[in-house]
Amino acid sequence: MSVHKYKVGQLVHYAPGRSSLMASSREYKIIRCLPPENGENQYRIKGISETFERMARENDLSRK
Q1: Residue 40: its pLDDT value, please?
Q2: Counting beta carbons within 10 angstroms of the beta carbon of residue 24, is it exposed (0 to 12), middle (13 to 18) or buried (19 or more)?
Q3: Do 39 and 51 form a contact (C-beta atoms < 8 A)?
Q4: pLDDT of 12
Q5: Handedness of CA 17, 51, 36, 14 (dihedral sign)
Q6: Quick one: which of 49, 56, 48, 63 has its CA closest to 21?
Q7: For residues 3 and 27, is the Cβ–Cβ distance under 8 A?
Q8: Alpha-carbon distance 49 to 64, whole Å?
Q9: Hey, which residues does 33 pair with through a beta bridge?
Q10: What is the mean pLDDT of each run of 10 residues along the chain (64 residues)?
Q11: Most exposed of 16, 24, 29, 62 (fewest Cβ within 10 Å)?
Q12: Domain extents in the chain
């Protein structure tokens, strides 16, 4: 199993690829680490100014 790069509670920047929903905020909090899909770690994230959570691939995140 692959080790997640980010930890629950950590603030990150989210820059999704073109095929993802537009992000209304660029600052997000890691809510939960998810199992890898197609060899890539995934996370549940929540925008600081949003009321809902999103799923994000590790490659779409960067350290704040």
Answers
A1: 94
A2: exposed
A3: no
A4: 96
A5: positive
A6: 56
A7: no
A8: 16
A9: 43
A10: 90 78 74 95 93 94 89
A11: 24
A12: 11-63
What is residue 16's predicted lDDT score, i.e. its pLDDT? Answer: 81
The total number of residues written for the chain in this structure: 64
Q: What is the 3-state secondary structure (H, E, C) of the chain?
A: CCCCCCCCCCEEEECCCCCCCCCCCCEEEEEEEEEEECCEEEEEEEECCCCCEEEEEHHHEEEC
Q: What pLDDT, on a 0 to 100 scale, did the predictor assign at position 19?
A: 56
Which residue pairs from 39-47 have beta carbons closer than 8 angstroms and sit at least 24 positions apart in sequence? 39/2, 41/2, 41/4, 41/5, 43/4, 43/6, 45/12, 45/14, 47/14, 47/23
**What tokens appear for 46 in the block?**
């929540």
